[in-house]
Amino acid sequence: MDLDEIDAARPAARRHRGADGLPLAKPSPWRLSALLWSALALLVGLALALLIHHQQQQRQLTERTFVRGELAGKTCSALQARLQAAEAMLRAVQTLFLASDDVTPVEFANFYANLRPREQFPSLLAMAYAQRETGAAGERYVTRWVEPVAGNAPVIGLDVGAQPNNLAGLLASRDSDQATLSAPFRPVQQRGSAGADDGITLRLPVFSPGDPPQTMQQRRQRMRGSIAVSFRVSTLFNNVLPDDVRRELRLQLSDVTDPGRSLPLFDSAPGETPPADDYRFERRMTYFGRTWSVVMLPRETSARGIDWRQSTLPLGMLASVLLALLVYSIVGTRQRALELGWQMSRRYRESEKRFRALNELLPALVLLAEVDGGRITYANQASRDRLGDQLTERRLPDLFEDTDLREQLQAADTRGCGRIEARLQNGEGVRFWASVAISRVELAGRSKLLMVASDISEQRQLTELLSHQASHDALTDLYNRREFERRLSDSLVVDPDAARIVVLLYVDLDQFKLINDTSGHLAGDQLLAQLSIVMRKQLGGTDVLARLGGDEFGVLLTRVADQAEAEQIAERLRRCIDGYVFLWEQRSYTISASIGGVVTDPAGVSAKDLLTQADTACYMAKESGRNRVHFYSERDDQTVRRRSEMEWANRLRWAVDEHRLQLTYQEVWPLPLNQGGEPGIEMLLRFREESGQLVVPGVFLPAAERYGLMPLVDRWVIETTLANFDRLHPAGSRLDMVAINLSGASIEDTALVDRIIALLQRYRVEPSRVCFEITETVAVRNLSQVVRCMGQLRDAGCRIALDDFGAGMSSFTYLKNLPLDIIKIDGSFVRDMMTDPVSHLMVKAVTDIGHRLGLEVIAEWVADAETVQALTALGVNRVQGFSLHRPEPALFYRD
């Protein structure tokens, strides 16, 4: 910039000076200009206030839509939880029939009374058992038992075939051996009344004894009957709705299982006209063979306007008025500032030179260029140092790497450039990022482009580094779990114009802990880094590979046509890992991986659900022998059982702290019964639901065994029993035997025996009154460990019983090597001994051999007085079973 250009930028000041530089006259009147500027400021302020007010309205609308979405999701989860609780209740009823071949109406009524289902389900109409009967008219399913009897008398003797929707559910449960839900129908209790069909039924089949039927033909032949619970739909779902959902949203449910046909199920606000609100939540959910459409609409009461107390519009209008007054004041002072400037002009006649010197000292890059052609006419010292000494021989657009920005700088209108971040380049190819501000100025009557820039290369690199670290794994440089979940969620956004599927793979290395333990964690880290490169080569450029944690990887396939192609990619990935040999120092390792996959439509599924399903499939692959691929399927029995066990495992982890575990006991009577001896007891475990219902151990103990929770459960049972030893049974201190069951995982705990001995001493319990039961299966599998544990407990004075003898691969020879006091005959032999000669012979053989070894013999599952007499004749020492005593809560709970 030369002095002529700087002088031309201040023509007004020069017109008001004389030859000596003194002011000649004052400027023209300024009030009109001040008013115009004030009016402009007022308009700008009002426009900004209106814009902020509009944005506030949009934010409130967005927040309301988000809250409604959360409430809708909460309602769907509540519906699913309610139906799953109903299935669990029905499974408990099915357990009653599976435990005994001869369930009586009285037992059925007592079971219902103890279950107290209406405390959890006020909408329950009836719990019924329909018996399969075959006659001249063909096969019928006639309801023989129903609870409660009051109000359900018309149901007794009812042929399920009279209700087609109900019959369809019965036949479906028979053929699939799964719980099925009927279409809505009019219950017998509702006949004669107005209104829509208001009943649904959940059913499970009951088969004859023997191995579980595997085919549909076997299920149809061995079908004994059907158990069902029926609910009143309006009450069932009305109780599910939380108060906040009921106030905000209207729930509409309909059954859309049959194509082209929609059966209304429930409407939380019938007849209500929805407000002028475009919000609508819709989801299809599948329950027990039926598909339901869930629609959530806003309620009239939820249509709220803008809260003016929180609106920024009044404040913005006030600020606009104040801004206009401020502009008026500022413009008004301009004249006084000019007068003061004229008075100081003599002292600053050299300001142009000082301005040039100031620009030269600035660290920012300052350039001046022509609008036409872009030739640079001035560059300060910082610009010349950074962009080269020959800068004034170049054009301003040539400094930028972005071709679009170059074209914009050469256009007639450059106002769009403004303040930007761009990459600059000097004449030698060096590039750097800069924050650039470009504006058009008038100098000496000519338009110029003024550019001020500062180097932000370091800040840019730091930002990129932090962004990379936040989304990538430091060891493998793959995406981390958070970034993977974000990309997975993005892939689930439904595009109505594109038909596609989502494929998720979950990769878990087999025996990775072995490498860490034998060669150290440094070797394990190196293996993970190498495998990440190997797996990346097997995937496409758009596929997403991430390390989810530890030795687990996630793969999101983006361009897969169907499941067959997904399975091919997963298998290729498995083979590449299986064929990789890892070398570390003087050792080599063969690597393998188990891969779980899930293929789904993106509609109606969440990222969390997909990860859970893929994890489940990976677990199934490991259970099937490792080094294989398993894809998730809702129809896979193992998958369904695995999900149920996972849910129970999560509940059991907190069961002790939440006081959900409860002890019951069953009496064990000495023979002969007529001698009036005192019974012993066996401690049994139950899980107490939130409703108070007790769940039998066959429902939750498999999950505890699979997920390693049995030591925790056993320790709680042992300590609770010993702490309340004389308050377990009404006999109190007269009890001569209290039996406690031990699992295989607890037997392997080397510290358990010391813990038991310490508890016996703490609670002053005579060890001879305590008997620990170990199943035959556990004893055979861990014979040496069991012998060690049994020997230590017997040395402490406790008694040892071998439970369920005969259930597995029984061997009488190892009985001589086990330190036993009692042998318990498996109940399956005792139950059938009066009708099956082989079972009778087995009971006699076990009793004789047990007595010759000096062992006490106990028979389980004693069902009637005739069996008691037969066992007495064979010399069995003690008996237990439902016919003698049904399990009941320990006495200290009742106290």
Helical coverage, percent range: 40-55%
Mean pLDDT: 80
Provide the spatial order of strands within the biggest beta sheet.
Answer: 22-23-25-26-27-28-29-30
Q: What does the radius of gyration come to?
A: 41 Å
In short:
With about 900 residues, the chain is of the alpha+beta class.
Can you offer a commentary on this structure?
The protein has 895 residues and is of the alpha+beta class. It is 43% helix and 22% strand. The chain has 30 helices and 31 strands. The protein has an eight-stranded mixed barrel. Strands 2-1-5-4-3 form a five-stranded antiparallel β-sheet, with helices on both faces. Helix 19 links the parallel strand 20 and strand 21. Helix 16 packs across helix 17 (521-537) and helix 22 packs parallel to helix 24. The chain is elongated. The termini are far apart. The model is unreliable at 1-28 (pLDDT under 50).
Attribute tags:
8-stranded mixed beta barrel, 895 residues, disordered N terminus, alpha+beta, 5-stranded antiparallel β-sheet
Helix and strand topology:
Blueprint: H1 3-8, H2 11-15, H3 31-99, H4 105-115, H5 117-120, E1 124-135, E2 138-147, H6 164-176, E3 180-181, E4 199-207, H7 216-221, E5 223-232, H8 233-240, H9 243-248, E6 249-255, E7 263-267, E8 281-287, E9 290-298, H10 313-344, H11 351-361, E10 365-370, E11 376-379, H12 381-387, H13 403-410, E12 419-425, E13 431-443, E14 446-455, H14 457-471, H15 481-491, E15 502-509, H16 512-519, H17 521-537, E16 544-549, E17 552-557, H18 563-578, E18 581-584, E19 587-590, E20 593-600, H19 607-623, E21 629-631, H20 637-653, E22 661-670, E23 680-688, E24 694-695, H21 697-706, H22 710-723, E25 738-742, H23 744-747, H24 752-762, E26 770-775, H25 776-781, H26 783-795, E27 799-805, E28 822-825, H27 827-832, H28 837-852, E29 856-859, H29 865-874, E30 878-879, E31 888-889, H30 891-894
Parallel strand pairs: 20-21, 23-25, 25-26, 26-27, 27-28, 28-29, 29-30
Antiparallel strand pairs: 1-2, 1-5, 3-4, 4-5, 6-7, 6-9, 8-9, 10-11, 10-14, 12-13, 13-14, 15-17, 15-20, 16-17, 18-19, 22-23, 22-30, 22-31, 23-24
